[in-house]
Amino acid sequence: MQFKSMILANAEVSPGYWRMRMTAPPEFAAAQPGQFVMVRVNSAIDPLLRRPFGIFDVGTYVPAHSGAQPQPYLEMLYRVVGKGTAMLSELHETDLLDILGPLGKGFDLGPLEEEKLIVGGGVGLAPLYLLAKELVRQSRVRLFAGGRTRDDILCITEFERLGVECYVATEDGSLGERGLVTEALEKRLDLDAGNASIFACGPHGMLNAVAAIAARRALSCQVSLEGYMACGMGACLGCVTPGHHHSPETPDYRCVCTDGPVFDSVDLKWGA
Ligand SMILES: Cc1cc2nc3c(=O)[nH]c(=O)nc-3n(C[C@H](O)[C@H](O)[C@H](O)COP(=O)(O)OP(=O)(O)OC[C@H]3O[C@@H](n4cnc5c(N)ncnc54)[C@H](O)[C@@H]3O)c2cc1C
Ligand code: FES
Q1: Element at 223 (helix H, strand E)
Q2: Residue 258 Cα, ligand 2 centroid: separation in angstroms?
Q3: Which of 19, 178, 198, 231 lies in disulfide reach of 221, CB 3.0 to 4.6 Å?
């Protein structure tokens, strides 16, 4: 679905990271955790391509004027890395955006009795909040959030408010344990190797390590990829990633925008 959305709020939540709330059509209430939107950051020719962002949250708000009915909103959490995201950060309340979505295949919530372990690296937490909101209804949920410094640890209070037990790891030790988030995950799994499933989003190296941990322990693991995307709808093949059986002789590519962005980790080819 393509729609015009009005910005309701756009605020820097940590240096270089922004959270934007905007109006959404009623159909957005059915958006699946892990789905994404393609955003046209302005109406000029440059930048021409829409930018993909995970859906951080969906909900309803009541507009200020009297007698108003609750209206749907959607939220994104984004990091300023280049031209498009810098432009987004300069937008204000009441500015309009052109949006396509919700797109792609989201997370499968899995068996309710399993403990759910969510692993997010930096802005990789973006699609994991809506997931946690769904999972806490029925399952015990733990979050492992990692980053280089404390500035990369985002919106932890919101996860805690949901009742999620949060573990933080930073590479410089400025917040939580010093080290990699995957080390914190392994420590937890060493303590209790019971029935658990893993959901992860973050830098490719982190996902590679999480997929390896899951494989070693025979745990189910879903990963959300954040590669490059031009169309977001399966038309340009700019987003493909190698599938599990890929080799130069027998190419096996997955389209991140339509087959994903969420994949079962065993369906993808990972580094050694
Ligand atoms: C399905 C999906 C969901 C995403 N969700 C989020 C989200 O919720 N929050 C968020 O902040 N970002 C998210 N991203 C990444 C986001 O789309 C890019 O950061 C954004 O498009 C960059 O646009 P830009 O114009 O600012 O940067 P550009 O000017 O296009 O690029 C600036 C620099 O960033 C690098 N870069 C751009 N895109 C990516 C990328 N996808 N991966 C790695 N490096 C990149 C470029 O190589 C360049 O060095 C997501 C990507 C995908 C595919
Ligand atoms: S972004 Fe065009 S096919 Fe996926």
Answers
A1: strand 220-224
A2: 8
A3: 198
Q: Say whether pLDDT at 166 is over 70.
A: yes
Domain spans, the chain = 2-103, 115-267
Closest ligand to residue 234's CA: 2
Q: Which of 53, 155, 258 to mutate to test the pocket of ligand 1 (most atoms within 8 A of CB)?
A: 53
CATH code of the domain occupying 115-267: 3.40.50.80
Q: What is the mean pLDDT of residues 222-250?
A: 92
Fold observed for domain 2-103: Elongation Factor Tu (Ef-tu); domain 3 (2.40.30)
Question: How much is the pTM?
Answer: 0.95
Instruction: For ligand 1, say whether the CB of 126 is within 6 Å of any of its atoms.
Output: yes
Write the DSSP assignment of 196-210 as a string of letters: EEEEEES-HHHHHHH
Taking each helix axis from N to C end, the angle separating 181-191 and 204-217, rounded to the nearest 10 degrees, works out to: 20
Angle at 253 between CA 250 and CA 259, to 5 degrees: 145
